[in-house]
Amino acid sequence: MRTAKRMKLVALTASVMMAAAACGSNGGDAGDGASGSTGDGGGSAEALKLGYVLPETGDLAYLGPPQIEAMKFAIKKINESGGVLGKDIPSPVSGDEAGDQAIASQSADRVLNQGVQGIIGAAASGMSLAIIDKVTGAKVAQCSGSNTAPTFTDYKDDGYYIRTAPSDALQGPVLADVVVGDGHSKVAIIARADDYGKGLAEATQKSLESSGAEVVMDDTYDPKATNFNATVQKIVASKPDAVVIIAFEEGKQIIKGLIESGMSPKKTGFYGADGLRSADLAKLVDPKNPGVLSGMKGTAPASADNPSFTKELKAFAPKLKELQFAPQVYDCVNVIALAAEKTKSTTAEDFKAAFNEVTKDGEKCNDFASCKKLLDDGKDIDYNGASGPLDFTDVGEPGKATIEVYGYNDKGKLETLDTKESTPAA
Known about the structure:
The chain is α/β, with parallel strands linked by helices. The protein has 13 helices and 14 strands. α6 (about 195-210) links the parallel β5 (about 185-190) and β6 (about 215-220). The radius of gyration is 23 Å and the shape is elongated.
């Protein structure tokens, strides 16, 4: 009896030790990242587990639903195709970035503690900068479908961070071309005092000046301010014939102040970027007269003309009003899943090496199922996603971009006016 009890005790101790080892593979330990690896890159015992840190509240809350639903839709499609390495991806672990770095950081901690191998988000560049060291330091993959700050291009992330949205270094020249193309030559630039605002303002300023325009004002503002009167007065005093406003939803207060000061999109050109691209912007500026924004234009990363994706996503999430960055987030999930398939591991330390490989220099495929079949046949793939060709550069971001030129009509309705290709300057 004593021998039997001793054997049971040994077996129980071994089981506890194995369980502890499995639970301790991620969490707050920056040691070896997500669980499930065999340790040699040759397989994984666990399903691919993902989470997100996206805006459920805060200034960018309108961008939360399209990104969150696109992530869930991608997971659904992958699971319908057999899952990753034969196992379904579970429902994603949720986290709110909330437009607040402290909250975003707490959300990242909570998501990481659930043992995820990949995090989608954050939406805002500033929120990603608040969590990127925490995430990549834990050897967990991070993919954003909407980070555009140039800061990330050279960021030291050991290959764990990628993005499917193009850098603002590619958007700025297109925004400048639109302003100059409309005949403006004296331009005021006002931007959020964060990496997104400063990066896009700098790229736009350089392109405006190289095109012969004079930048009569280049300033930033505190996005957490409650009163923008001083900012509006600076713009008016610079006497521009066009104003570039690089903002999130708080930009509506600047626009409203400019209009109250006698400016308008038709008298003085008003131009925004992706942070202001919203179907509701005109109503936010003036609910009784949305046509007040008639003539305002802007630029934003565009998606490929993909009506089938749009139709399927709306059927999956019929309450969605905004679709901005949904295709890019959908692609984030697929790139991670395909990298896991290629390396036959659901551990980020293994599959991060395949991020760039699955987006270029192989046989073209445009969904998880067709790409997986090619991988199963031992072929290299070139995933062209819902947002279009990705063709990642060595640093894990699109090497070229399609930029949408949008505008508001006489009724304040958001419309796509044009799309332009942009590539890095030689």
